[in-house]
């Protein structure tokens, strides 16, 4: 019997598979100019240091960050839950003549050896995770001691359901997600579910996610500090050049270091 977590993952995977073909055309997602490319190269170079470093891009999508890191000369691995996103990333790497190892994987449960990477980076990922505590723990596990975690995030929506969910224990939030996913499984077995049902189910699940609508910078920083990330620093990313236009909501970067207490599992 398939687990509830697997059914939740199916819903999330379907959503991002569906968006893969047009993802890079959406504002703030794709690369639209050489000026934007140079701005990201400058930002990422400052984060990761001199090449070659080993870098993991979790929830890499179509490879926006991973390919810029490869362009800087680093050894890059990119993972994403969506096979279609990974397919787009591979095609872009080939067309740009860049080398990166892209493969399908759950960003919250990595099949990668411990203490491997100098930098783990995620752009617009943590908000979409049912269990961000588990995910951050695994990201720290694959970082070497003293390695850096870098999260590019934003706060684009206020979500009343999310605020109410976060007022209770995390187990209650996950229980509601599991219940919704179980209901989806029943519909699928009954032959009543299709793409429209899956999309609607994703929207319902999304509202229950712990960081639905995106966390504020201060909330994410506090969360990381509570989960063994050291030397946490927040930096605004409101430069319009980075996004191909003026940001419509707060965007920021949070970085931190894997300390000795976050021992590899």
In words, what does this structure look like?
The protein has 265 residues and is α/β, with parallel strands linked by helices. It has a domain at 19-161 and 216-256: Rossmann fold (3-Layer(aba) Sandwich). 45% of the residues lie in helices and 19% in strands. The protein has helices spanning 4-19, 34-48, 64-71, 83-96, 132-142, 160-166, 170-189, 195-208, 217-225, 240-243, and strands at 54-58, 75-80, 101-104, 117-123, 143-154, 229-236, 251-258. Strands 3-2-1-4-5-7-6 form a seven-stranded mixed sheet, with helices on both faces. Helix 5 (132-142) links the parallel strand 4 and strand 5 (143-154). The relative contact order is 0.15.
Proportion of residues in β-strands:
15-25%
Overall 3D form: globular
Structural class: alpha/beta
For the terminal residues, how far apart are their CA atoms? 28 Å
- CATH architecture label name of the domain at 19-161 and 216-256: 3-Layer(aba) Sandwich
Strand line-up across the major sheet: 3-2-1-4-5-7-6
Query: Low-confidence runs (pLDDT<50, min 5 residues)?
Result: 160-169, 186-194
Count of beta strands: 7
Give the radius of gyration.
18 Å
Name the CATH homologous superfamily of the domain at 19-161 and 216-256.
Vaccinia Virus protein VP39
Average pLDDT reading: 84
- Under the CATH scheme, which class of the domain at 19-161 and 216-256? Alpha Beta
Instruction: Please estimate the helix content.
Output: 40-55%
Largest sheet features: 7 strands, mixed
Helix segment tally? 10
Q: Predict the CATH topology of the domain at 19-161 and 216-256.
A: Rossmann fold
Could you give the order of the helices and strands? Answer: HHEHEHEEHEHHHHEHE
